[in-house]
């Protein structure tokens, strides 16, 4: 009897995905990580996956690359470096790091850190929200003068309401505004898995809940209230407005995340693969990403200071987080005509993190007649943190001028 030939299993080859995407400059595809996942999950689906092997290049005598999410700061003690190297997935480790580095942060050479706090009353709080999550918040209020208005700040993805924002908040408060900010669940000093957004709408609801309490506490002062959203915080602010169209008297949107720049989105094949495994591993840090500091900070000296923001998330985005942000930008892009509150939109023309062309579309399509857009030539993403001092002061002047105009209208 002639034995039957065994059928060979077909191999599904992903190959070199960066070449398939036909883009000259794209994000690295983390093959090793995907191999690990696929060994665990592909067998149950009867799929066999193989990758093209590349010959290892001989390494020179240069420095070893830091692992993703790890930061090294020159001149700090070994004890501080151990705190910095700790797993910051949960809030207690982030809080220890912030406390340990607070004095060092205050001494760095950046114009925002030199903004005085004299004449300001500042308060930090930890409060449980309706979901039982402990939320960190901070306020900056002029001590001996009546408020012109109320500003509620929504921070970006790689940021918190401390560090650089401390200087931004002090600057605004010195011009007579009460400034209130919070760290989203999972960000900064608030409880939750670091930079994990299971639902963007859920995050927006958390922010609405917190700032509704802030406004309620100051209700007797009859103040105009403004949203101030930066980068991803711009998307948060817009979603807040779309959920509650009449709750706010205006919004300042700084490089808003109405659409993620094409260069920041993974190649199509990688994107589809990530979507496919997001339900299996929503919290996995797998999404390829370029160096955000390099893309966002134009001023090289200021870029070198970003590691001092020790509680900011610096690892690869988590799968569910990345997909939620993409879904959110698609939703906002389709609803620009519904934006009806007074707007100040500020964007760097050379921004390669969020797309300035969609800020232009927001300006053109928003139904409000009270709207202003300012595009800064050659400026990058971080307009208030990463530009030369002259540009930072120019952006501040534009913000305060708009705020004063819209607060005066109310008092008249």
Entry keywords:
single chain; 412 residues; alpha/beta; Rossmann fold; 8-stranded mixed β-sheet; two-stranded parallel sheet
Walk me through the topology.
Blueprint: E1 12-13, H1 17-20, H2 31-41, E2 49-50, H3 78-85, H4 91-106, E3 120-128, E4 134-142, E5 149-154, H5 164-174, E6 177-182, H6 200-217, E7 225-230, H7 232-243, E8 251-254, H8 268-278, H9 292-296, H10 300-303, H11 319-333, E9 343-348, H12 356-365, E10 371-376, H13 389-411
Parallel strand pairs: 1-2, 5-6, 5-7, 7-8, 8-9, 9-10
Antiparallel strand pairs: 3-4, 4-6
Describe this entry's structure for a reader:
The structure is a single chain. This protein is an alpha/beta fold. It has 13 helices and 10 strands. Helix 7 (232-243) links the parallel strand 7 and strand 8 (251-254).
Q: How would you summarize what this structure contains?
A:
By secondary structure, the protein is of the alpha/beta class. Helices cover 36% and strands 14% of the residues. InterPro entries: AB_hydrolase_1 (IPR000073), AB_hydrolase_fold (IPR029058), Hydrolase_4 (IPR022742), MAG_DAG_Lipase (IPR051044).
Strand tally is 10
Question: Which radius of gyration do the C-alpha atoms yield?
Answer: 23 Å
Termini gap: 101 Å
Strand content: 5-15%
Helix and strand composition category: alpha/beta
Give the overall shape, derived from the CA principal axes. Answer: globular
Corresponding CATH superfamily of the largest domain:
Alpha/Beta hydrolase fold, catalytic domain
Spatial order of the strands forming the largest sheet: 3-4-6-5-7-8-9-10
- CATH fold descriptor of the largest domain: Rossmann fold
Overall tally of domains: 2
N-to-C series of helices and strands: EHHEHHEEEHEHEHEHHHHEHEH
Number of distinct helices: 13
Largest sheet: 8 strands, mixed
Task: Name the CATH architecture of the largest domain.
Answer: 3-Layer(aba) Sandwich
CATH classification, class level of the largest domain:
Alpha Beta
Average pLDDT value?
85
């Amino acid at each position: 009897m002639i034995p039957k030939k065994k059928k060979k299993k077909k191999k599904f080859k992903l190959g070199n995905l960066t070449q398939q995407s036909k883009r000259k400059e794209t994000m690295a595809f983390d093959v090793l990580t995907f191999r690990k996942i696929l060994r665990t999950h592909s067998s149950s689906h009867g799929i066999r996956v193989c990758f093209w092997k590349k010959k290892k290049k001989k390494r020179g005598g240069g420095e070893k690359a830091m692992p993703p999410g790890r930061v090294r700061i020159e001149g700090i003690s070994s004890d501080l470096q151990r705190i910095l190297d700790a797993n910051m997935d949960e809030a207690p480790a982030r809080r220890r790091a912030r406390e340990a580095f607070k004095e060092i942060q205050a001494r760095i050479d950046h114009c925002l850190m030199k903004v005085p706090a004299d004449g300001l009353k500042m308060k930090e709080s930890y409060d449980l929200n309706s979901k039982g999550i402990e939320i960190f918040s901070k306020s900056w209020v002029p001590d001996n003068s009546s408020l012109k208005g109320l500003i509620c700040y929504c921070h970006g993805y790689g940021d918190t309401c401390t560090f650089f924002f401390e200087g931004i908040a002090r600057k605004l408060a010195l011009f007579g505004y009460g400034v209130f900010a919070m760290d989203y669940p999972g960000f900064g000093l608030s409880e939750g898995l670091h930079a994990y957004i299971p639902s963007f709408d859920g995050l927006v609801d958390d922010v609405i809940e917190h700032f509704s309490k802030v406004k309620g506490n100051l209700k007797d002062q009859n103040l105009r209230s403004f949203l101030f959203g930066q980068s991803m915080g711009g998307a948060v602010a817009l979603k807040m407005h779309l959920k509650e169209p009449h709750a706010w008297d205006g919004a300042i949107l700084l490089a808003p995340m109405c659409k993620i720049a094409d260069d920041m989105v993974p190649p199509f094949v990688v994107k589809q693969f990530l979507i496919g495994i997001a339900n299996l591993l929503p919290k996995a840090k797998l999404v390829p990403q370029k160096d955000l500091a390099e893309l966002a900070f134009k001023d090289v000296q200021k870029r070198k200071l970003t590691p001092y923001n020790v509680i900011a998330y610096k690892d690869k985005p988590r799968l569910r987080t990345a997909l939620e942000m993409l879904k959110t930008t698609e939703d906002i892009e389709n609803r620009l005509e519904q934006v009806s509150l007074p707007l100040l939109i500020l964007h760097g023309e050379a921004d390669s993190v969020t797309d300035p062309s969609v800020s232009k579309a927001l300006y053109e399509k928003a139904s409000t007649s009270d709207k202003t857009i300012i595009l800064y030539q050659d400026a990058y993403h971080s307009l208030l943190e990463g530009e030369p001092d002259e540009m930072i002061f120019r952006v501040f002047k534009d913000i305060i001028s708009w705020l004063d105009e819209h607060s005066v209208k109310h008092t008249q």
